Amino acid sequence: MRGEPLTNFQRGKVYIIEFWATWCRPCVAEMLHLMQLQEKYKHGGLEIVGVAADEDAPTAVEARTKLDAWLIEKCPNLNYRIAFDFTGKMNRLWREPSFSVGIPTSFVVDRDGHIAFICHPSQLDEVLPKVLNGSWRISDKAKATDTERIATSEPMAREEALKQPIDDRFWAAVKLEDWKTALWAIEEGIALMPDDINFRLAHAHLLLHKIQDMWTGLPVMRQLVRDAIDKNSEDWMVSALDQLFHPANDHSRLPPAERFAMGKELSEHILALNPPQGDSPKYRSYPAVARYYHDNGNNDRAIELVELTLKSLDGPEPIPDELKEHLLPDLLQALANYRGGKVCYGAVRLRKSSFPEVPKRGRARRILKKGGGRNVYWPVHPLPWRGRSKQAPCSTGRIVCSRFEVRILR
Q1: 3-class SS string, 168-187
Q2: Rounded to an integer, what distance in angstroms lies between the CA atom of residue 195 and that of residue 203?
Q3: Pairwise CA distance, residues 250 & 246, whole Å
Q4: pLDDT per residue over 5-20, tens digit each?
Q5: Which of 56, 99, 189, 407 could form a disulfide with 344 if both were Cys (CB 3.0 to 4.6 A apart)?
């Protein structure tokens, strides 16, 4: 696909086999990091190979054409090889046996041809020099690290394998808008894993917003709200709130009094869990709570929550520039809507770049492919800190200002 084919591993060289996809934002954000590693260690015998084994397209020809166009446009100066696989063979040979559930995932092959380390690419800086000098694989830390990785990843991998047939039936039915078949698949999933958040959300969404069976759907929604509060989980509570107030959904058939009562309870618990004066990130939950207050007629409170969200983007817990860029337009548009005007990006300046900058190192994130895992809260737009996007933000610019201001045009 890019560079000469690699037919075997040469003894004496170290290889990084990097599984990635063009739609995976964390994967794309790490590409510059990998380019820097390739340049830094090229004389030490390092070879990086990016494996695009999860591209979305109906056929292999279309997937390869899209990948090639993406590489030409976004990454013309890429300094490592790119391989392409549409058959699933690479995933079956590498990721599945190692319990590597999501991407990006890096496999480091040492000079003897052994897989010495499996990790998120953000972890390479510390370990790669030790692999290059031959001290890593025989170390106690290497063994402990791999044991910990397997203990964490194996249950997830086995769970995803159980979900796969259900996912396949569900997404096939969604594509045909066959909501009853989709519902049967989800109900099978819930019987198998009653605490899976994505099964539960899809269940409520199908009943309330697709089949519009309020008699069955409202008890399901009530139980989802109750469980979210009992778990004291921000993710669960925000996701339940989105079923009730997300603008992508038609809420006209929901009884208003009960809808707002559930919204009030969820919002109060979210704000108690993540109070305005605390340092926890607000972008995960405050926009959803703001939608509740806006729909309930309290625009002042909605505006206050969006402004707190904007302010928190520059808070003490670092947020990658790429994520800020993803969040900012919707936040500013929401603020303008609540104020009754049009948005004008006054103080926000975007600097064009031809390649994504490496985000500040936070917690490593992997993304599961749709169909292999429902980390997307279908069919509401993905939550930005968990969902996937097919749009890789390589050349859309980067937020360089530290102040977020908006002017309202009336």
Answers
A1: HHHHHHHHHCCHHHHHHHHH
A2: 12
A3: 9
A4: 888 899 999 999 999 9
A5: 407
